[in-house]
Amino acid sequence: MEPERRAFLDRLLETPSPSGFETRGQRVWLDYVSEFADEIHTDDYGNAVAVHHGDADTAFAMAGHADEVGFIVRRIDDDGYVRIGAIGGADRTVSQGQHVTIHGDDPVAGVIGQTAIHLRETGEEEYDDVGEQYVDVGATDREAAEALVSVGDPVTFSTTVEELHGSRLAARGIDDRVGTWAVAEGLRRAVAADVEATVYAVSTIQEEVGLQGARMVGVDLAPDAVVAVDVTHATDSPGLSEKQRGPVELGAGPVVTRGSANHPVLVELARDAATEADVDVQLQAAGTRTGTDADAFYTSAGGTPTLNLGLPNRYMHTPVEVIDETDLRDAGALLGAMARRAAEREPFAVDV
To answer: Which positions are catalytic?
Structure first.
């Protein structure tokens, strides 16, 4: 990956962006895409859109979601411990014993407490629900803690980007900052090729709490077609079998999803564009729903042809999500190739 693209990815991954509090991450994304987009804008809730204005009537959109799972301050104990609730699907099994940051007026360092193994009755342990966990910021009483944080402040893990062997990366918030990176790269390639279609790159908000940003943008933009880019479960690590999700491997390419929200014409477009761009893709089945913004986009504005493009990801919703950088690079190339072909493929309706 070129140094400028990699630096952008690192900035996205290092900028906290929990659901409902995405503005800092959206600013990073907008500053980057503004260098090549014809137009950028946001709506009242912070969905961010960058546009390439093409000569054809076709409007082709691609979207990733900016938000990550995390926690929120619910109350402060008399002893100064900060009680938390979940933002989105926060995993209670990995949170205790972790460094976190509470994002108030100023960042506040803390740890989610965990009783030492010597003092626990081992053998029949259960994980505390998130609502039973607490953050220790070092305060000795409620007054000291309230001088630092307030009810409603968001909380994120403090982990940052780590390079693993080869082209593997680990970080929190990979779900779905890598999707927002991919659509920015797809737009950059579309602009460089001066594609005929008008192309929207979108960084949506609040996917993790109900696909809310996609519901807003899908109506507002009403594109002819949209590709929702999100992570999908890699099944090549211990503890997760192909029987659970289907064979998806890190480094084997982005994942084209078939079934449910996924429009067959866009599936065909993606596979043809992958051949053109010399990109390997994997296939995945979605018999009921995708669990991504695609589920909101495809029923918006009277029905919008939609595709869920997946990026293989290990350990989703943990502080140590892992991807292969080559899958991400190839997803950007694939999106650019799809944008080049969009105008000639439209209309996207199925033959009945």
So the answer is: 207
